[in-house]
Design brief:
By secondary structure, this protein is an alpha/beta fold. It is built from 7 helices and 14 strands. It has an 8-stranded mixed sheet with strand order 1-2-4-3-5-6-8-9, sandwiched between helices. Strand 11 and strand 12 form a beta hairpin. Helix 3 crosses helix 4. It is globular and about 55 Å long. The N and C termini lie far apart (38 Å).
């Protein structure tokens, strides 16, 4: 049964509401920003959880990573609703016929992942039980990349007045970034473990510094000893078919979405995400087999940090 089709009731008694999110499948950021009329339409599923009582509520969009929606993502909705914050967990995979991207991240574009975030925000913006000025997004791994890119892209396209109040990027892949990561008034935080094998901590750290240099509010935390997805409820395990290239050169995008080739410095609207990833692999940065999971009290540390952030920026 696909996520969003079954009834989900959190341990705190909050029942989920199925939602359908109209979105799109841009081939890349250039199409999403400069040629949006050429994008293929798409639809994804989600599940909305509202706290008891009456709204309008602040809300956080929860975006999973390459393994899709897991119990750990749904658990975020429980923590958020306990704090009086609504949560909308989205499933970017089901509507696209994808089950996992760990072995092949090019099954749909990272621009589409970012578009999903803004599409979900647009849907929530129109609900009477949601405060349209307090829409946030939390992404994990590929989802972390999505929320960071969405915050930038929201400054470059016509969102119809929809904004992201804050984003929390959990162990995001920052191998693709906007060369000027202007997120406007969006408050940004990124966290990652220093033993992460999927994503490069230094790249995340540099990304947050670039956001600050663009005049925006951003913070960063490194968790010593933590692996990728250290907020999960599963022990550390080896994902044998995971293909990663964390040390590959960063691919930057101009404000029109054109990718800048790291070897030439030339921006090319026709340079696709797949070709850029292949460059990193052929340059010798790719490898197969990476670890994921948690140990000790890292999951609790993550959730304490996560909720401190959301309470600070959402509860007033």
């Amino acid at each position: 049964m696909a996520f969003g089709d079954e009834e989900i009731v959190l341990d705190n008694g909050v029942a989920g509401e199925r939602v359908a999110v109209p979105t799109a499948n841009p081939t890349g950021f250039y199409q999403a920003i400069t040629e949006p009329e050429r994008m293929e339409a798409a639809a994804i599923r989600g599940c909305m959880f509202a706290p008891p009582g009456e709204g309008p509520w602040p809300v956080v969009i929860v975006v999973p990573g390459s393994l899709g929606v897991a119990p750990s993502h749904v658990f975020k909705a429980e923590l958020l609703t306990d704090a009086g914050i609504a949560a909308c967990v989205i499933d970017p995979f089901g509507g696209r016929g994808v089950t996992s991207t760990v072995a092949n991240q090019a099954q749909y574009s990272f621009a589409a992942s970012a578009w999903d975030v803004l599409a979900a925000a647009t849907l929530l913006h129109g609900r009477n039980d949601i405060d349209p000025t307090r829409i946030g997004a939390q992404g994990h791994s590929r989802g972390g990349s999505a929320v960071l890119s969405a915050a930038c892209m929201a400054q470059l396209i016509d969102t119809g007045g929809v904004t992201l109040h804050a984003v929390y990027a959990a162990y995001p892949w920052c191998g693709q970034q906007f060369e000027r990561p202007d997120v406007g008034e969006t408050v940004v935080r990124a966290v990652i473990g220093d033993r992460d094998e999927w994503c490069l901590p230094q790249q995340v750290q540099a990304h947050m510094q670039a956001v600050r240099l663009a005049g925006c509010e951003a913070s960063f935390r490194l968790f010593p000893g933590a692996h990728h997805s250290f907020d999960r409820d599963t022990p550390i395990e080896l994902i044998k078919d995971g293909v990663v290239a964390p040390g590959a050169p960063t691919i930057y995008f101009r404000s029109d979405g054109a990718a800048i080739h790291p070897a030439t410095g030339v921006a090319d609207p026709d340079l696709g995400e797949r070709e850029a990833m292949i460059y990193g692999l052929k340059a010798g940065y790719g490898r197969r087999g990476v670890r994921i999971g948690t140990a000790e009290d890292f999951a609790q540390q993550f959730h304490d940090d996560m909720m401190a952030f959301w309470r600070r920026v959402m509860c007033r």
